[in-house]
Amino acid sequence: MVRAMTSALPSTTPPEPGDDGAVTPLPFANSSKKVLVIDDTADVRFIIAETLNVFGFTAIVAEDGLSGIQLAQEQLPDLIICDINMPNMDGYATLTAMRQHDATATIPFIFLSGESDKIKQRKGMELGADDYLTKPFTHKELLGAVNTRLEKQAEVQRQSNKKLDELRGNITLALPHELRTPLNGILGLAGIMIEDHATMPPEEVLESALFIQESAQRLHRLIENFLVFSQLELMASEAQKIELSNSLAPAQAQDLLPDIAAKVAARFKREADLQLRVTPAGVLIPPENLAKIAEELMDNAFKFSVAGQPVRVDCGIVNHTFQLSVTDQGRGLTAEQISKIAPHTQFDRKTYEQQGAGLGLTIARRLTELLGGRMAIESKPGAGTTIRVAFESPGR
Prior knowledge:
Blueprint: H1 2-8, E1 34-38, H2 42-54, E2 58-62, H3 65-75, E3 79-83, H4 91-100, E4 109-114, H5 118-126, E5 131-135, H6 139-196, H7 202-237, E6 251-252, H8 253-267, E7 274-278, E8 282-283, H9 287-303, E9 311-318, E10 321-328, H10 335-339, H11 360-370, E11 374-380, E12 384-392
Parallel strand pairs: 1-2, 1-3, 3-4, 4-5, 7-9
Antiparallel strand pairs: 6-8, 9-10, 10-12, 11-12
């Protein structure tokens, strides 16, 4: 194996950058990126490490999987190159251990494998390896693989940072407003009632109390949605599904949805805009989950349309599938906006005044997915939005 590899490399001393036949330094050269090389063969470790050092990387080496894991956790390299065939702990076990440790789980990982090891290469990719180098390889192939992986990792980080910046901006804009508005109403009116309690007419006391209650309910709903969202995201990150008991009776939409729709419409003081068409339909999910999904979809429809525009709720069995759809005639969304729907994200908030922290639709979608259902969004700017959720109907 070593003979084949060294025959592909000009010598055990890598060429200097700029020598005839040498590789031109690639984007990450001289960037002080740290690369961990794990191989039980000293010659292989030397050739790879010296090549990387010559071209501006910092190479650290380990002679087996155990010492490689320890070095990775201590040094946190930017990339790991690891041989598959090693005694005691092979490359597969090394990669598995790396992926199970938080500090090393996302470090790009390149396997070294023999030219005929196609099955081993496939297994490595299935375990989460990012790439592999086939022996024998040249300086250029080595550096090309390293730079490609580092560039992809850098792009992932750039996209992650961009989304994080957007999230920070959305939270900064939405959350203080959503917390302070109802809280200021509660504190302000409570203060007035305390100060003027002896002279306030009963009707003013009642009006103030009702406003305080409405503000408190808004604040309670916001806090509740944060807690629900956190729980759902934790389940999704662990690839969990909501387990359904074998004794679970189907939730009956015709018993649940009318009351939920009436409550949401009343919340927006738009009872006249509600159009409800619900036929007897059962779905094998917990009733409280169906209620939460329906409430968030209806709340979203009323929130992003105005008084006088109808909000239609349809529910029934279509082609042996339980379907719930909520349609509004509000301002609608572009395809790009639909693709960017996320928690704490509201579009055109500076242009349109609206309540909410951008959690409702995300909660409905995540809950639907965790229950094994599907959600689809159809929307057109200026023409409104239809959101559909579907579940396999009981007995299909």
